[in-house]
Amino acid sequence: MRIIGNATQLMLEAAQIRLGSRVLDIAAGTGDQSLMAAQVVGSAGYVLSTDISSSMIKVATEVIRQEGLTNVETKVMDAQNIDLVPDSFDSAISRHGLMFIPDLQKALTRINRVLRTGGKFAALVWSKAENNPVLGLPISIFYRYTGIPLPKPGSPGVFALSDPYALSDAFRSAGFHEVRVQAVPHVHRASSAEEFVSARANATSGPLGEAFSWLSEADRKKAKLEIVQALRKFDGDNGFEGPGESLLVVGSK
Hints:
Elements: H1 5-14, E1 22-25, H2 32-41, E2 46-51, H3 54-67, E3 72-76, E4 89-95, H4 104-114, E5 115-126, H5 133-146, H6 164-173, E6 177-190, H7 193-201, H8 207-213, H9 217-231, E7 235-236, E8 239-252
Helix pairs in contact: 5-8, 5-9, 7-9
């Protein structure tokens, strides 16, 4: 949230989430943006937090329980096969999840179907790799260690939706109108490049945390050293400040 809290807030505003709104969160992960939406909609509103990963939903469910929220529900759900009542949500959101959906067009069409007329769908996706070196540089190193080829254009992956024109076209093809895309910059901060990489190496989620889990213990150590070296150029007097950028896309039903 320190990194993308502002971008998340912009997403909620773009989705026109208000007091009493019914909100669908797609590819919600552990759901902190679902909690933000729940605070906005209040007790008269409702948020359904969904993800294909049962382990992610388990974490989200526990966090919601600890927060004592009664206006949020969780559900394991594939975005490509949303089985919800048509025209039943005022808004939909998705934060850094759309890029990993194999059949994006099918998912967008299903999301459009469950929104009421005039409803908004707002989503954040990662911009181009060159605008996100703290992700792009490590990922290129990971692919070299694993031997897995880089995803082909159009295939699911961190930067799969980094072309704003293709992203807009996908939304329009699914039936959304008044589609707009804007770049949202952010800065990844830490005391040093080493601290930044160490935190990601020990994480259980996020693109870098998952990538580290693919490697053997020996390769994890080697890759970590190499990534730290690659990112040291972002160390400065104020610590580590790695540039990043998301695209915020919003469309109306």
